[in-house]
Amino acid sequence: MALRISFEPQLRVGAPGSESVAALLVPLLGAIRQWGSLAEAAKAIGCSYRHAWGLIGKWRDVLGEPLASLEPGRGTRLTPLGERLLWTDQQVRERVGPVLARFASELEDELAKGRSARRKRSPAEGK
């Protein structure tokens, strides 16, 4: 069985080791853009409305400005900062993703060669 390796860029805000913004917030913002509704966006990414609302509020507090604007009866739309965060995430993935995929492929090849060489050795040689 071949090993599959991947590297993923992640946006983090705050001190080293802080929580990844990409884990749920970026998909939530994308779903808000697509559906125009926080409730529908939450459903689309598999979380509760309350959790989605909490994420939007948490990152508003962390960043100092809102990422989405909720307008009763009119739905939810991204603010310029929310749009910029999504755009930046997309640009990083498009630009860095292929480089990371090449590194992963090279590492997979190297590991496969090592595994193949170990299999070719007889049990007596391994001792």
Tell me which CATH architecture applies here.
Orthogonal Bundle
Enumerate the strands of the largest sheet in spatial order, edge to edge or round the barrel. 1-2
Strand content: 5-15%
Q: In total, how many beta strands?
A: 2
- Mind describing the biggest β-sheet? 2 strands, antiparallel
Structural domain count: 1
CATH topology: Arc Repressor Mutant, subunit A
Shape category: elongated
- Write down the Rg: 21 Å
Query: Which structural class do you get from the secondary structure elements?
Result: mainly alpha
- Mean pLDDT over all positions: 87
Could you explain the architecture of this structure?
This protein is mainly alpha-helical and 127 residues long. It has a single domain, classed as Arc Repressor Mutant, subunit A. Helices cover 59% and strands 6% of the residues. A two-stranded antiparallel sheet has the order 1-2. The protein starts with 24 loop residues before the first helix and ends in a 7-residue tail after the last helix. The model has no long low-confidence stretch (mean pLDDT 87).
